[in-house]
Design a protein that fits this description.
Elements (H helix, E strand, L loop, with lengths): L17 H4 L11 H19 L5 H8 L7 H32 L1 H20 L4 H14 L2 H12 L5 H26 L2 H4 L1 H4 L3 H5 L3 H21 L49 H29 L11 H30 L1 H10 L1 H18 L3 H17 L1 H13 L6 H33 L6 H17 L7
Helix pairs in contact: 2-7, 2-8, 2-12, 3-4, 4-5, 4-6, 4-7, 4-19, 5-6, 5-7, 5-12, 7-19, 8-12, 8-14, 8-18, 13-18, 13-19, 13-20, 14-15, 14-17, 15-18, 15-20, 16-17, 16-20, 19-20
Length: about 475
């Protein structure tokens, strides 16, 4: 007889994957490439939509006139746009992930892709700061896909191929973060940049940022079609929503989960109560992910603003296409290194040591920001400055190894298979809060550094270094194995 889910006892010392890890060594399970490749395609749409605004966001803020010509406020408003997305996501992401445990992953993915497409079209048509705010909030509120995709990855894999799967996930993510800045940098203000092609379009003159926003919106719409037609459900829904449709009641049967031994749940596996997630292993795994996300989002929101800020004010004075190119190269390098190096480093160093090494790389990555400005002040943007930028991009790729490790810890910490979605949703709530705090804090510190010249204009880098030191303290609490 199935036990009452509210009476389940969650053993804090027994992770989800322990039974698989204690089992005799077997050969590596092949990845289910047909379904997993669709999940990789799905992963491209999310970061592409998120990163497409990075190259032109500073100029967009200047164009709408919200700063009234005060350059020091540009960073503040750019950070606010990024923070609003994650703030609204934090309010809804757990409910989306929890809902996916009951109705299945696929319906939630479809809702998220629709919301992503709609919000990007709205962002491109925005002419005031408040319309930008509403578009970003809509994007965050309807975006339940991040936690759900992590849950699906865990359900498609087992302990023998989980690290391999997480090595490919960043490749797809990096493809999105590569295409996003390229699209945003190249297609922003197309009537001005390509007058022979778009010069006659009054629409693009009126909405100069619609075209770069329309590209990821269209990609999300096409991905919706692919997911709707071909993606199979990986969870066993507790509620079959098709049975709620009166014309389907006698015709449909529950959608089968992806056929692999790691997906199936025992009869007693039911979603656990929310309070069951407040155990040490879940909290520490969530803390490691949230810490990495805080440092990463703080750096990545300051980075394009730093590049766009004039050298005399503490930046490098790059134009929008140059910023887009640098961010795209960063995404390409990250996409190459993750599948080639991550799984090998994981096997050699172990998860905890690799996580600490990755986070440590963010310290010199941050220090290179003021170093490159100091060099640019003395000699201009010369070859040596580009060498520092290239080193910074390389260190950013190393830092991203921490993401894959954190995802693995969270999947292993789930109380049972039926609660993978809730566990990822809980983690994503905390991460979204950190991602809401990070851009606002870092970009506000950057604005204050420019305006007040605190610590010689280096206050923001001290704040970011303090974030890194705090996060490293969490890393030492991680278990050596999963």
């Amino acid at each position: 007889m199935s036990p009452d889910p509210t009476s389940q006892q969650v053993d804090e010392e027994t992770p989800l994957l322990q039974s698989e890890e204690n089992a005799p060594k077997t050969s590596q399970t092949p990845l289910p490439w047909r379904q997993f490749s669709m999940l990789l395609v799905l992963q491209i749409a999310e970061p592409m939509a998120a990163s497409v605004i990075s190259p032109f966001a500073p100029q967009l803020i200047r164009d709408i006139g919200i700063t009234h010509g005060d350059e020091a406020l540009v960073s503040f408003y750019v950070g606010l746009l990024h923070s609003l997305f994650f703030a609204t996501e934090a309010l809804t992401i757990f409910h989306w992930s929890r809902l996916s445990d009951y109705i299945g992953r696929k319906p939630v993915l479809l809702i998220g892709l629709f919301g992503l497409s709609l919000s990007m079209f709205c962002f491109g048509l925005s002419k005031t700061f408040w319309s930008l705010v509403i578009s970003r909030c809509l994007n965050g509120a309807l975006n339940g896909n991040i936690g759900v995709m992590k849950s699906m990855t865990a359900e498609m894999t087992d302990s023998t191929n989980l690290a391999r799967a997480w090595a490919f996930i960043p490749l797809a993510w990096s493809s999105g973060t590569t295409l996003g800045p390229l699209v945003g940098g190249v297609l922003a203000r197309p009537a001005d940049r390509f007058p022979n092609i778009f010069g006659g379009s009054e629409f693009l003159k009126k909405y100069p940022y619609f075209l770069p926003c329309a590209v990821p919106a269209t990609v999300s719409a096409l991905t919706w079609i692919v997911v709707f037609l071909y993606m199979k459900e990986t969870a066993t829904p507790q509620i079959n929503i098709s049975q709620l449709l009166p014309w389907k009641k006698r015709k449909t049967v529950p959608s089968p989960a992806l056929e692999s031994p790691q997906v199936s749940s025992s009869v007693g596996d039911m979603p656990v109560p929310i309070r069951a997630l407040f155990v040490r292993r879940v909290i520490i795994a969530t803390g490691s992910y949230a810490g990495v996300a805080l440092v990463d989002i703080a750096f990545r929101t300051v980075q394009p603003v730093f590049y766009a800020t004039p050298i005399s004010l503490g930046g490098l004075g790059f134009d929008t296409p140059t910023i887009g190119t640098v961010l795209a190269v960063q995404g390409i390098l990250n996409g190459i290194t993750q599948p080639l190096v991550f799984a090998r480093l994981h096997d050699v160093m172990g998860p905890k040591k690799l996580w600490i090494f990755a986070v440590t790389c963010s310290l010199p990555m941050i220090a290179l920001l003021p170093a490159s400005n100091t060099l640019a002040r003395s000699s201009g943007v010369v070859q040596s400055v580009w060498c520092l930028v290239a080193l910074q991009v390389a260190l950013g790729s190393c830092m991203n190894f921490a993401y894959g490790i954190s995802f693995m810890y969270i999947s292993a910490a789930s109380p049972n298979r039926a609660s993978v979605g809730a566990t990822n949703g809980f983690a994503q709530v905390i991460v979204s809060v950190m991602r809401a705090i990070g851009p606002a804090a870092a970009n506000s510190a950057f604005s204050i550094s420019i305006e007040k010249h605190y610590l010689g204009g280096n206050l923001v880098y001290c704040v970011m270094a303090g974030m890194v030191c705090m996060v490293m303290g969490i890393g030492f609490l991680l278990p050596r194995t999963m």
